Amino acid sequence: SSVQLPSKQKAALTENIGDSVEVIQYTDIDTPQITSPTDVIIKNKYAGVNYIESYFRKGIYPIASFPYIFGREASGIIAAVGDKVTKYKVGDKVAYVSPSTFAQYSKIDESKVQVLKLPESIGDDQLKLYGSFFIQGLTALTFVHEAYEVKKNDFILVWAAAGGVGQILVQLGRLIGANVIAVASTNEKLDIAKGLGAKYLINSSKDDVLAKVKEITNDNGVAASFDSVGKDTFETSLAALARKGTLVSFGNSSGTVDPLSINRLSAKNIKLARPTVMNYVVTQDEWDFYTEKFLKYIKDGDIKVEITKTYPLSQYKQAATDLESRKTTGKLALEIPQ
Ligand code: NDP
Fold first, then answer.
1. Other Cβ atoms within 10 Å of 182 Cβ, number
2. Fewer Cβ neighbours under 10 Å: the N or C end of the chain?
3. Helix, strand, coil % in the chain, rounded to nearest 5
């Protein structure tokens, strides 16, 4: 069953690898159609912007085939379902995590993709939030549980603390009772981190991060460094760790971390983790556990996700420019033309 799908749709995509955002096109492309009985087609209304898109565009992460439609998460309504689909019907409001969401329509396989059904009554602001917080929320949550299990009174270092993932890491650290040391490049960004519960603030444009960490921790170092900046900060993270500390290296915002000899870890019995969120939420149980936990934090008001700017889909190039030039804080979203 389906509503009539147009043959063409608008999408933000690229046909080439490119360092520059200029390879991003806003253009017409074929609308996906139901070709298997478990296919579901979602008409997207909002999509969350994530830094990972720049890695695909730049060729840091591989792209299987072109054109590559950007996007990893979205919310909207079910537009068509295959004959064997039982969980969803046309008209259901949903949020989900899957590739190619910067488009008016996306196709998913019911048996492979986790979809959260939303109440009929949900308003547009809520719909936008649900389409925008899963990747960053689940990243922060799974990492503080599994990459390094943060404990009360731990000192933890959070880089890019006013960014999308960073803001949630800071709040989770506060909730657990850890001493969060936030690093960001401007005082405005540090004010945001402070408001979310960071106890100590380091301005990476002015301060010597390592010296500050030593001062704050009485020369002991931190139990963990949550480092998404990558190339520029890896060595500082390593040096900032306490004995038996954990380096959670999870991004390449400044470039990919250089290869290193594992023998370097023995000096302080360091653990090095290089996780990706989607490998922590593979099974149904894992997905349920973490999404329920995250949604409860949101519902109870313990964690706030701020969508600081919403761009029309046609302006994704601008959103990518702003994100990659360190101009943004919190979460960016796209509004998709209906
Ligand atoms: P952010 O909102 O955190 O934006 C990136 C921030 O990184 C900037 O605002 C900036 O903060 C900081 N930064 C430091 N150096 C640079 C640089 N040279 N160029 C650009 N930015 C820089 O983005 P997201 O919340 O979307 O993602 C945060 C990081 O987490 C990314 O690296 C992303 O890839 C990673 N990630 C990894 C996941 C995983 O599964 N492994 C999942 C989700 C995200 P400041 O100015 O304060 O330094």
1. 29
2. C
3. 30, 30, 40
Locate the DSSP E strands across 159-302.
Answer: 179-184, 200-203, 222-227, 241-249, 271-273
Question: Per CATH, is 8-133+305-335 categorized as 3.90.180.10?
Answer: yes
Name which residue sits closest to atom 4 of ligand 1, judged by CA. 163
pLDDT value for 228: 98
Using the atom order of ligand 1, give the atom closest to the CA of residue 252.
Answer: 32
What tens digit of pLDDT does each residue of 91-139 get?
Answer: 999 999 999 999 999 999 998 998 999 999 999 999 999 999 999 999 9
pLDDT range class, residue 4, cuts 50, 70, 90: confident
Q: Indicate where the chain has its CATH 3.40.50.720 domain(s).
A: 136-279
Q: Considering the chain, tell me which residue range(s) the CATH 3.90.180.10 domain(s) occupy.
A: 8-133+305-335
CATH 3.40.50.720 for the 136-279 domain, yes or no: yes
The residues lining ligand 1, judged by C-beta closer than 6 Å to any ligand atom, are 50-52, 135-136, 139, 160, 162-166, 184-185, 189, 204, 228-229, 232, 250-254, 275-277, 323-324, 326, 328
